[in-house]
Design brief:
By secondary structure, this protein is an all-alpha fold. It has twelve helices and no strands. The longest helix is centred in the N-terminal third of the chain and has 18 residues.
Amino acid sequence: MSNKPVRAQAKGSAGVTGGPNSAVGEQAPEKTPRKPRTALPSPQGKGSAKKPESHLAMVRRARRINRELAEIYPYAHPELDFRNPFELLVATVLSAQTTDLRVNQTTPALFAAYPTPEDMAAAVPEELEEIIRPTGFFRAKARSLLGLSQALRDDFGGNVPGRIEDLVKLPGVGRKTANVVLGNAFGVPGITVDTHFGRLVRRWKWTEQEDPEKVEAEICAIFPKSEWTMLSHRVVFHGRRICHSRKPACGACPIAPLCPAYGEGETDPEKAKKLLKYEKGGQPGQRLSPPPDYPGLPAPPLGSAPEAPAGS
């Protein structure tokens, strides 16, 4: 029995957005009128005299940020091209230490050569390595792909399992990868703690934890389970487009009034606007096959044009 393409749940549901989760043709959801946004408080910039924030106040602020991000990024989605759980699993493993764009530029040839776990399990290692070389660390990644494909073939009948307990036993698969697959291929809510997510939730004072599993646990306690997957996408989108690691665009940030780290980056609106990336900066996105409601440009195929910014 082989994997069938899986569409995730509709926006605002326990999974991720409906149309955006697949690289194959899906109709864009109907647009609904946006509610008028209430006024935000003044930015909480450095040096502002404030009493310590209570836990309850932090939770309310965190949920307010999530609501604002939902309006800013109604099209938030996984930025890896995939058509079924196996493709998403493989793409997520390849995404370590590289951009989703580079993975998306590499996987068309990969899945043309090895469309199923059975095909990839029988791959010649050197040939597999050569295809995935552009993603970096290709020898280690090839070992993981061969190992997980063999495990899927031998232990799961060629199907990607839909339980985190099974996924994390596969070679090269940790909780982050498992939550990506569960949330976006199976509609099972989960928090995906990647570099962007961890950086922003600490910047926003939602947690002080550094360990990804502890971050996941603390953030899960703040939000309803139904929000976990979409929250992950919104936070990552914001981190890649506006709230960058080295030079956040504070002056162009719509949630600046809710951010305790306002002022760490460029606060001049015109200078900050020049720091925006991907669709916010008028540049191509990371997906070669973006969802129908994505407002930006598709990414170029491998070798056809310079890469879009990495979204540091």
